[in-house]
């Protein structure tokens, strides 16, 4: 189709015009067949710039426009919006002569390249089809994976807005890591006290379906239309009938380590992880139980007055349709066995930060008393080691973000418990960037007289009753040796191992630390690359409670914006399969990162419009050249290449 | 036969293995049907004809001329031009004439290198005096510097792919040609008619390449087993003869019509289905590919490199 194309070259101040001779670009483009008008302007994205385009569309009777300016990621929407008033928006293309030209080239070369980029874009535009956005219906229900503080906050936000939420938690209770903490920095609020009301709110909320002791098995579908299969493991106790009287626990003869207490306290085979657990019910650990058969041992069942115990309970598969998914799977500590240099695993008196948290908790293994585990006595000298596994190329290269703060809190709480004790903190740098954080650190340093030593610990070894911690104070250059009673390692934070499995099911990416990869590190920090999937809390990166809560609310607001419409609009620049000529080789189905290529009954491929993100992987992989991207057809690309070379 | 206008057909054997000539016979009893409609006016391999017989024919008097084999010598080229002149429809018959085929791989080497190998260095050659025959002492047609496809020498009206053209391809082609059609054949890839089609897993992922003899064939899709099968990038029509005999496709039918280049198409498909691996493993698996040109460009080298080996590579 012969088009009347207008070319608008942006100066972008001196960003483009400082390097590229924009006037020459416009003059050269005027010579191209089909280009009836070309001009330049200071800032094309400004109101006068946009009005210039409108004015010229009218005056010159243009029916297609190329804006030569910045990246389409920046302003494509702006200029398509301008053109939408006059003709199909897919007749508007941007030629990126800033990021891909003026910012990376100099002199004559830059102008030459700019001309080629704009010419190629004109060639592409010629064969663009007029397209309409794809409309996709929305199931207004959200799946949240993980019931820590992030999952809880997101669930409450969405449920309060009037939409249904399915909150899936792998453990018997929601609460996550926050439930394990003693006090929180910098205000020293009791973690459990501020969390419990939210946990209860989740349990009582009519819009929230809480599935604890459950795991997501399968996820299929696409934004607005996900289908999930959830496995509800049998807890052998009826959640509603259990009165939490504790009789069963008393008679249970099996004792195992309690995971919630970082295995520093025993529990029975039938147990409630902690008193405030939600749902408030006992759970029977099948692995630990003597046999789930009345003949072997049925003491719990016999004493249960509420008749809540059912040995015949079966795993249940629950299927749900949801429109959006929030992943809030939280974190684990870096594997302590990998820190051989700090002797973990071999010494009882070297513990992790979370073990110390439990020790500080009134309901914890020691009832809130700080002890030296090997002797049970009060430790008089405690060494805290920051960055244990973090900021270390041998382990995890990144900063775990919260260790500086909680270590200061740990030292402070230690001093409150043992006023005549001495606390040492080995650190690389102090990172206290949150609100009130720096003040908190100052207070700990000055008022509590904690010995902050800047330097890494080189060696830890046992010498009789003591643990000797050797390091260098890099501020004074002197060697430091502390005869400690207890060493607390501020362990690196890593994403959950299960996150990798969930990521596979969701077809989203995780990084080396098992953290979910966001769509854009700055501008899309809660979105996955796949639409309709969002991240909250430490599943995405190490972060403190306020950040996790804020991110959860951000994720919730993203979900609500999806739920605010009955149908979703989607960019129609997607893959199209020539089904007639498809040989059903299955390559595209194998390579599609979004699961958008579907194998039909006859084996041939079909692109599910709603799922396709238009990445083009399938088109490149198809060995029959049978898949084309809308408006990036082979012939268009060939023409673009031809004018460039 | 009376009353019916017989089509005059010719068949010539250029530089090739002879399999194409034999393939006509694979029509079995159907060749009789062909002879009902056509009369053979020139087929040196099967019947006694001399070049002068061909020269004497009127220009355009042959209805359909089949040329099998590639253009390797002056003689091949001369006959190609002559046949072109004498025929209405000139058909490139088989992979050599169409794409250059296996012998086209010779374009990776110079004429001197080829003679050196053939007459002197070949393990089974006994040539103590180191004689290389040449036109100086014998009257021989010149061995051209590079192998050419038929289309690189004369205009070609139709192509019958295959090494040699398998029976179903041939039947389909002859039927079309006798009706005057020059476009025929399937335009989908081989997977479409593959007997192992249903064994394809939901996701094909390759973490190691195996050569045929390195793995016990479990009867599933070869690619899914990590064995390179050119099927996805190769035109269908042969009814998967090789795969039916448990041999992966090597791509003799050439690319499907939409594809510009079969080898690169298959390579980019393979690259896409490699499993998750680090750069080192990736390098390792790429280097494990034996004979890249011979695997992916087994049939089309001469078509793609008509002037022989790229200069900057030699």
Question: What order do the helices and strands come in, and which of them pair?
Answer:
The complex is a heterodimer of chains A (645) and B (314).
Chain A: E1 5-10, H1 22-30, E2 35-41, H2 47-60, E3 64-69, H3 72-84, E4 92-96, H4 98-102, H5 107-126, E5 134-137, E6 141-145, H6 149-160, E7 164-168, E8 183-184, E9 189-190, H7 191-204, E10 208-211, E11 214-222, E12 225-232, H8 247-251, E13 255-257, E14 266-268, E15 270-271, E16 283-284, H9 299-303, E17 316-322, E18 324-327, E19 331-333, E20 350-352, H10 353-360, E21 381-388, H11 403-417, E22 422-427, H12 437-447, E23 451-454, E24 457-463, E25 466-473, E26 478-484, E27 486-491, E28 493-495, H13 497-506, E29 533-535, H14 545-563, E30 567-570, E31 575-577, H15 587-591, E32 597-599, E33 605-607, H16 617-621, E34 627-629, H17 634-644
Parallel strand pairs in A: 1-2, 1-3, 3-4, 6-7, 6-18, 7-10, 18-29, 20-27, 21-22, 21-27, 22-23
Antiparallel strand pairs in A: 5-30, 8-9, 11-12, 12-17, 13-14, 15-16, 19-28, 24-25, 25-26, 31-34, 32-33
Chain B: E1 7-13, H1 19-25, H2 30-37, E2 38-42, H3 51-56, E3 62-68, E4 71-73, H4 74-86, E5 87-93, H5 94-99, H6 111-121, E6 143-148, E7 158-160, H7 167-178, H8 241-244, H9 262-272, H10 279-287, H11 292-296, H12 301-304
Summarize the entry for a quick read.
Chain A is an alpha/beta fold and 645 residues long. The model of chain A has no long low-confidence stretch (mean pLDDT 94).
């Amino acid at each position: 189709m012969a088009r009347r194309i207008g070319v608008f070259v942006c100066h972008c101040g001196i960003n483009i015009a400082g390097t590229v001779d924009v006037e020459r670009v416009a003059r050269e483009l005027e010579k191209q067949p089909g280009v009836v008008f070309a001009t330049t302007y200071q800032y094309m994205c400004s109101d006068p710039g946009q009005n210039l385009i409108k004015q010229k569309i009218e005056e010159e009777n243009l029916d297609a426009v190329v804006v030569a300016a910045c990246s389409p990621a920046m302003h494509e929407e702006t200029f398509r919006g301008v053109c939408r008033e006059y003709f199909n928006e897919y007749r508007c293309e941007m030629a990126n002569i800033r990021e891909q030209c003026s910012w990376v080239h100099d002199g004559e070369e830059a102008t030459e390249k700019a001309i080629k980029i704009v010419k190629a874009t004109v060639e592409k535009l010629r064969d663009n089809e007029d397209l309409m956005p794809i409309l996709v219906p929305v199931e207004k229900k959200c799946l949240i994976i993980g019931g820590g503080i992030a999952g809880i906050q997101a669930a409450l936000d969405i449920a309060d807005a009037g939409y249904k939420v399915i909150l899936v938690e792998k453990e018997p209770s929601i609460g996550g890591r926050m439930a394990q903490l003693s006090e929180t920095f910098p205000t020293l609020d009791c973690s459990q006290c501020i969390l419990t009301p939210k946990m209860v709110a989740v349990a009582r909320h009519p819009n929230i379906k809480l599935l604890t002791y459950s795991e997501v098995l399968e996820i299929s579908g696409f934004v607005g239309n996900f289908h999930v299969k959830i496995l509800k493991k049998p807890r052998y106790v009826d959640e509603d009938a259990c009165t939490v009287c504790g009789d069963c626990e008393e008679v249970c003869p099996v004792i195992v380590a309690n995971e919630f207490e970082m295995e520093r306290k025993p529990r029975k085979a039938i147990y409630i992880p902690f008193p405030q657990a939600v749902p408030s019910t006992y759970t029977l650990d099948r692995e630990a139980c003597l046999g789930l058969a009345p003949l072997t041992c049925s003491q719990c069942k016999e004493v249960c007055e509420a008749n809540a115990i059912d040995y015949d309970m079966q795993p249940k598969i629950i299927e749900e349709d949801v429109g959006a998914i929030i992943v809030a799977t939280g974190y684990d500590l870096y594997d302590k066995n990998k820190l051989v240099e700090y002797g973990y695993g071999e010494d009882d008196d070297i513990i992790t930060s979370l073990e110390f948290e439990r020790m500080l908790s009134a309901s914890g293994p020691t009832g809130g008393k700080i002890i030296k585990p090997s002797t049970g006595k009060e430790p008089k000298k405690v060494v805290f080691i920051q960055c244990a596994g973090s900021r270390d190329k041998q382990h995890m290269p990144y900063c775990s973000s919260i260790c500086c703060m909680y270590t200061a809190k740990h030292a402070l709480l230690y001093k409150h418990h043992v006023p005549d004790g001495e606390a040492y903190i080995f650190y690389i740098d102090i990172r206290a960037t949150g609100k009130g954080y720096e003040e908190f650190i100052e207070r700990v340093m000055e008022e509590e007289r904690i010995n902050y030593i800047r330097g890494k610990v080189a060696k830890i070894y046992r010498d009789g009753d003591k643990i000797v911690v050797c390091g260098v104070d890099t501020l004074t250059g002197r060697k430091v040796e502390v005869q400690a009673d207890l060493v607390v390692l501020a362990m690196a934070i890593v994403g959950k191992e299960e996150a990798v499995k969930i990521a596979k099911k969701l077809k989203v990416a995780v990084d080396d630390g098992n953290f979910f990869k966001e769509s854009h590190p700055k501008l899309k920090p809660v979105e996955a690359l796949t639409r309709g999937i969002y991240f909250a809390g430490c599943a995405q990166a190490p972060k403190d409670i306020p950040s996790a809560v804020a991110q959860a609310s951000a994720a919730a607001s993203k979900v609500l914006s999806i739920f605010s419409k009955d149908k979703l609009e989607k960019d129609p620049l997607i893959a199209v399969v020539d089904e007639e000529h498809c040989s059903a080789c299955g390559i595209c189905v194998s390579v599609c990162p979004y699961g958008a290529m579907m194998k039909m009954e006859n084996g041939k491929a079909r692109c599910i419009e709603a799922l396709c993100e238009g990445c083009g992987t399938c088109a490149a992989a198809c060995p029959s050249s049978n898949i084309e991207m809308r408006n990036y057809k082979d012939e268009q690309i060939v023409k673009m290449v031809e004018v460039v070379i | 036969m009376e009353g019916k206008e017989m089509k005059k057909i010719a068949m010539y054997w250029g530089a090739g293995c002879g399999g194409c000539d034999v393939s006509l016979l694979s029509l079995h009893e159907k060749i009789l049907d062909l002879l009902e409609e056509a009369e053979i006016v020139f087929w040196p391999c099967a019947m006694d004809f001399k070049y002068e017989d061909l020269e004497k024919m009127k220009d355009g008097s042959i209805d359909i001329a089949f040329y099998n084999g590639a253009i390797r010598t002056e003689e091949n080229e001369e006959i190609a031009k002559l046949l072109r002149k004498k025929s209405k429809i000139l058909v490139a018959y088989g992979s050599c004439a169409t794409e250059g085929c296996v012998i086209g791989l010779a374009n990776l080497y110079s004429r001197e290198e080829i003679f050196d190998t053939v007459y002197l260095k070949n393990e089974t050659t006994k040539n103590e005096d180191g004689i290389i025959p040449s036109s100086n002492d014998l009257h021989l047609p010149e061995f051209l510097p590079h192998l050419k496809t038929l289309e690189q020498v004369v205009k070609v009206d139709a192509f019958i792919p295959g090494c040699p053209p398998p029976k179903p391809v041939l039947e389909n082609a002859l039927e079309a040609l006798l009706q005057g059609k020059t476009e025929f054949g399937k335009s989908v890839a081989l997977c479409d008619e593959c007997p192992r089609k249903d064994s394809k897993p939901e996701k094909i992922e390759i973490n190691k390449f195996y050569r045929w003899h390195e793995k016990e064939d479990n009867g599933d899709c070869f690619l899914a087993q990590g064995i390179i099968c050119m099927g996805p990038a190769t035109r269908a029509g042969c009814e998967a003869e090789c795969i039916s005999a448990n041999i992966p496709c090597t791509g003799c039918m050439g690319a499907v019509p939409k594809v510009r280049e079969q080898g690169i198409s298959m390579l980019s498909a393979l690259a896409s289905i490699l499993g998750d691996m680090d750069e080192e493993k990736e390098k390792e698996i790429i280097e494990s590919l034996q004979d890249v040109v011979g695997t992916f460009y087994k049939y089309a080298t001469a078509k793609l490199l008509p002037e022989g080996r790229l200069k900057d590579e030699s």
